[in-house]
Amino acid sequence: MLDLRIKKHRPLLVSVGIFITIFCACLYFISLSNTNFKQNQRLLLSGMARSQAAEIERNLSLSLTSTQILAHQISIDYEKVNHFESYAQTIMQSFEGISSIQLAPEGIIRYIYPLQGNESALGLDILNHPKYGEAAQLAIAERRMIVIGPVKLVQGDIAVISRTPIFTKTSNGNEQFWGFASALIMLTPLLEKTGIHQLEEEGYTIQIQRRHTDSKQTFDFYQSPTELDKNAAVEADITLPTGAWTLTLSHNITSVLHTRTLNMLFVALLLSSICSLSLYNILIRPIRLQKEVNAKTLELKELAFRDPLTGLPNRRFLNDHFPNIIKEIVANKSLGAFIYFDLDNFKSINDTIGHDVGDQMLASIADRLERNKDHDDIVLRLGGDEFAIIVPSLVSHEELKRKAEAILHNTQQSLSIRHRDFKQSTSLGITLIPDHGTQVLELMQYADVALYEAKRRGKNQYVIFDDSMHKQSVDTHNEEMALARALERDELVLHFQPQFDLSLNKIVGAEALVRWKHPDKGLVYPDSFIPLAEQSGQILALGNRVIEKSFEYLAYREALGLYPILLHINLSSLQLNDPNLVPFVKSMVQTYNIPGHYIGFEITETTLLTDINHAKETLEELKSLGICIAIDDFGTGFSSLGQLKNLPVDLLKIDRSFVWDLERDKDDRMIVEAIIAMAHKLDIMVIAEGVESNAQLNMLREFHCDLGQGYFISRPIPQEQFNDFPESITLNDLLDA
Ligand SMILES: [Mg+2]
């Protein structure tokens, strides 16, 4: 179950996995890229900070040198103190940022340039000053320049004081402390000169601080208006004669980093989404395809189980589903039924009014059956006008009878198609499940037997199968098998009834009539086995056997040197509609080397009417082989002589019912005379069948009937007897016979 669920959602899970993997990889890449970016920025800043610190250091050193220069001058010749102002002026002009220069002989400030504004410093005792004293002592002790500050001046500026001790040589060559040369160096102009503001304008932040060597306390004496960015801040030292300052340089990359990160996240999200969606699409495609195929297969399966004309389940549905329904009925120990039916005389509707009307009628009846069925019942169309209803659950036999009567009643209601009203009836054969069987074939066969019985009893009724019918069905089955064996074992023989030329008084032809030499029953006549052959689908094989036997006989006669005859063979409607008929006849002509004009085919009017156009085509093809076309039983059907004009007919066979009463019935005489006269006008010869008396023969001769056939001339006789039949016969021969 879990496996199935995982399998079902696998594309989604895989795609989510791919999304997470790609997104994580992107995050790693973003972090790597940001680190790189920061490192690059720091490298760049580091270079800049070092060069900026060096620049400050250089400028400051230069300015600090001012006191050393002054100290040097004084140490060489302290008389130069008298020219202090001019020295100081020169120095101030030469070095940047120096605000004032002082000289403090013996540590007390006596000279200041410029004096104006600095008067308060005059007389300041540096060595004993609480703030500067210690540093001054150190400078003397180490004989080097010291830098004090940076300090915040009263006016707000930041400055450093450079103080160099001055030593002069005594007469004995020793050096002795003379005083201090000091300079007040303003940092603002000095820093300005190093291009610090330019950097600030470019977005850099600078902080300069001094860290006290011992206390580690810091004093920030320069700070750009913008805040330092901790993400990208680098430090560089500014080395001074005493101690060092720290320059911190930063550039605001946090917002740049944010923007970069957001952009890259967006790209990562997009990339992960595209990849995972593409993959999902690829993975889902076979599933979608499978779904489509399944849906299509289901649809086709549905279609395969439906009859396209009526939309009802079809025979395939029956074969597929009926066994399960039967199983359920048996398992539930309930009662079911199979109702099998077709429409009485439906074939004539198709044949006479047309297949499209027939189809509409079937569709309407199917609709009516479907609408009036009970809930569980399944109405099926099995093909043609064959329908069936499966009743999966029956309460009683009365219920079944009510259903059967309802079907009969519903089918009988008139139907209006193309402004014409039609009335139909149906016959029902019913089997009970499981009483009559639990196999589909069995139930269908018995239902068919019951249906046959319903038709036999006069149609428009229902018959429920019973065991007596079973015997009948077994008998029918046995008979069918026997007929199949008869064809196999060649038990069929031909008898011949001579046809007599009334004017020439000689035998010109014969009608071949099939007989079955049944091993048990003896000679069986076609009335008994032709319907069986039709019902079991053996009629074509039987018909072809008769044709072949006829050709065989003609070849035999020729070989014996007997007089030539025109042999007539009866052709059923199924044979006439058989597309293999003409090729078969052609093959017979070739095999037995018998020209077509020795063969005639007798076709009844009703046979012709099933599909007159097709019949015409077939007859014309047969005619082209020289075969004589005869219309059998003429006068009993619906055809007129006018219709025959369009068909390739050579011979009319007047039905025996007209000949029978020729002596007594005036109407029959007139009809026969008229038929003969009209046929002759159409160049069609006439043969009368059922001639049983001399009077009939004479009358037919009077009407100029061409040929005659009947007991008066001869009964149908076996082959050996017919071989001996004389060609010419007189009236006396016939009367004697
Ligand atoms: Mg016939």
**Cα-to-Cα separation, first versus last residue:** 95 Å
The CATH topology assignment of the largest domain is: TIM Barrel
Give the biggest sheet.
8 strands, mixed, barrel
- When the domains are counted, the total is 3
- The CATH homologous superfamily of the largest domain is called EAL domain
Q: How does the helix and strand content classify structurally?
A: alpha+beta
CATH architecture field of the largest domain:
Alpha-Beta Barrel
Give the overall average pLDDT. Answer: 87
Strand content: 15-25%
Calculate Rg over CA atoms: 66 Å
The level 1 CATH classification of the largest domain is Alpha Beta
Low-confidence segments, ≥5 residues, pLDDT <50?
none
Provide a quick synopsis of the model.
Residues 334-467 form the GGDEF domain. With 737 residues, the protein is of the alpha+beta class.
Descriptive overview:
The protein is of the alpha+beta class and 737 residues long. The protein folds into three domains: 52-251, Beta-Lactamase (2-Layer Sandwich), CATH 3.30.450.350; 315-465, 2-Layer Sandwich (Alpha-Beta Plaits), CATH 3.30.70; 478-724, EAL domain (TIM Barrel), CATH 3.20.20. Helix content is 50%, strand content 23%. The protein is built from 24 helices and 26 strands. The strands form five sheets. The protein has an eight-stranded mixed barrel. Strands 2-1-5-4-3 form a five-stranded antiparallel sheet, sandwiched between helices. A five-stranded mixed sheet has the order 11-12-10-15-16, with helices on both faces. The structure holds magnesium ion. Residues 511, 570, 602, 632 line the site of magnesium ion (MG).
